[in-house]
Amino acid sequence: MTVQELPGAGASHRSTPPPAWRPRTDAAPLLPDPEPYRVLGTGAADRLDPVLMRRCYAELVRGRRYNAQATALTRQGRLAVYPSTVGQEACEIAAALVLEERDWLFPSYRDTLAAVARGLDPVQALTLLRGDWHTGYDPRELRIAPLSTPLATQLPHAVGLAHAARLRGDDVVALAMVGDGGTSEGDFHEAMNFAAVWQAPVVFLVQNNGFAISVPLAKQSAAPTLAHKAVGYGMPGRLVDGNDVAAMHEVLSEAVRRARAGGGPTLVEAVTYRMEAHTNADDATRYRGDAEVEAWKAHDPVALLERELTARGILDEEGVRVEREAAEEMAAALREAMNADPVLDPMDLFAHVYAEQTGRLREQAALLRAELEAEGE
Amino acid sequence: MTTSTTTPVAAAVPRAKPATMAQALTRAMRDAMAEDPTVHVMGEDVGTLGGVFRITDGLAKEFGEDRCTDTPLAEAGILGAAVGMAMYGLRPVVEMQFDAFAYPAFEQLISHVAKMRNRTRGAMPLPITIRVPYGGGIGGVEHHSDSSEAYYVATPGLTVVTPATVEDAYGLLRASIASDDPVVFLEPKRLYWAKADWSPEAPARVPGIGTALVRRSGASATLITYGPSLPVCLEAAEAAREEGWDLEVVDLRSLVPFDEDTVVESVRRTGRAVVVHESGGFGGPGAEIAARITERCFHHLEAPVLRVTGFDIPYPPPMLEKHHLPGVDRILDTVARLQWEN
């Protein structure tokens, strides 16, 4: 099977041919707003779409429960590690919901939730963290690239894929996620630059959650905001309240729309906070105080939306109960599936290194097979 | 069907005429691009300029800038973007311009390019060809003459190929572009302008990746080499005749996969082996080859397997490189040491 024959490779979505590749002409302002953009709790909330917001609420509640369940699974030894997104659910959910089916998501290792919200089976999403394989799914099925562990290295992939789609006449957008620490990496710079020069249909979402493991943003970057970094590349930068799912959805949608229409890339900085440690192998009390964490608790993404929707009569107690029950069901199913030991075939070690196994690998596979047979006796 | 007596059959078959390796490489990309619209050439200077070595000359003009693209000067970006392009079904051919300029792209190469097939259980192979002009002997200044093949061969998931002839330059590059796996295609830049009689018909006869070729038959010892050192070994083999040595010369052509059987068959017959390459000896490909020969030919060997390699030093300045590169004399001196006395 050649690459071209693989399902989902260069799928055709040729409604209208996108504009030709051209230098930047978009009039969108490059400089971000001085304050993070907000919708919830402001007059802008008057134009909220009730159906979309109910969907967001359901996903937020489910996401919060998913985080809790995955953390519990780590404590039980079912996951090697889990980088929690408690407090960041609005970023994860918005990233998934703004994409069309034909678009691609390029998540980092922390963005399991975005992949699940896009439709990835919760168990498959945890394969990497459980340790039975590196990626638990075929990236082409839902158009979700493998969760990237090296920082920012998936960003140029998003640029290349979006560029390739454009070259093939498909109006496909790639949305790539990275953390505040990842913006210091060279690959971040190269991806921004390529995307802007090529006017590639890419949206870069930086989740500024305050810390790269233990290093605070002040020691990470001297830029006024991370959104300002966009200016130097010649693309618009937007600063958004990352705990405000309505604001996140609006800003990311606008960026996706512009990308799809040929307006080129956008850098979105979501200002949010990592409520838990980097992973559950980390001790956050060594580098930050309780007061800071408590202050962010008052700005919780789930509570923010719940308050707004309740005040507007879009959500009632019954609605809250329904979503919490659905989330409990998801968690129970996840717990049950994860408590089953995965069945692994050690011979898989050699199966996917090359299209055609080399002589050396055939020898080593034979060695392992003999060892397995000897163990079996 | 009538037979025309006025149309000579020979006219249909392009006759072999002198061509350089550079021309064969250009032709390989051109033919691949003409046959397969998913083949895209990209890199710094590959478009308008046609590459600093002119290997991509004319491709942008013939296929347009979307198919032969001048990228920003950023090797990680070039290779990283190629990963995304391959994920979408294209076949990128990227140029790294010079051996040591490829190093900024190593994280992309090692963490993503080499592993994508494996981490996705075969769901997402990456058909990327990475062209790396490599090796010394052209009087290049620092960072322009490295032999970096040891880094590539140590990375599982990469195929590593290096042609030494005009015919192979065409045939192996076509095979690399057609491969569904990522291939590091090492171009011996000091052979770019070496000419040979070549016709584009010939490549059909060239064996594919993973096959070594006996370039010269001999009975008294085997020289095992590849890329830029092949002509040196052939010259040494001619010179050795005066000393009474009848040397066989094996051209590996691809380092991964390594055609062990051709090497073993030759060494079992000759009983003596010398591995020759430009890169440093410690941890170099020659160490692996010597180990495999020792494992599989121990009872056939009349002498230890010896190596002639570059010194284990950073690549020297151009005025000193002749002392570093394996030359005919050093090879002959080493062959003389194969007259082993217990």
Please render the helix and strand layout as text.
The complex is a heterodimer of chains A (377) and B (342).
Chain A: H1 50-75, H2 89-97, E1 104-106, H3 112-117, H4 122-125, H5 127-130, H6 139-142, H7 155-167, E2 174-179, H8 186-198, E3 202-208, E4 211-212, E5 215-216, H9 217-220, H10 229-233, E6 237-241, H11 245-260, E7 266-271, H12 290-297, H13 301-311, H14 317-339, H15 348-351, H16 359-376
Parallel strand pairs in A: 1-2, 2-3, 3-7, 6-7
Antiparallel strand pairs in A: 4-5
Helix pairs in contact in A: 1-2, 1-13, 1-14, 2-11, 7-8
Chain B: E1 17-20, H1 21-35, E2 39-43, H2 59-63, E3 68-70, H3 75-87, E4 91-95, H4 106-113, H5 116-119, E5 129-134, H6 149-153, E6 159-161, H7 166-178, E7 183-188, E8 195-198, E9 213-216, E10 221-225, H8 230-240, E11 247-251, E12 254-256, H9 260-270, E13 273-280, H10 285-297, E14 306-310, H11 321-324, H12 328-336
Parallel strand pairs in B: 2-3, 2-4, 4-5, 5-7, 6-7, 10-11, 10-13, 13-14
Antiparallel strand pairs in B: 1-8, 6-12, 9-11
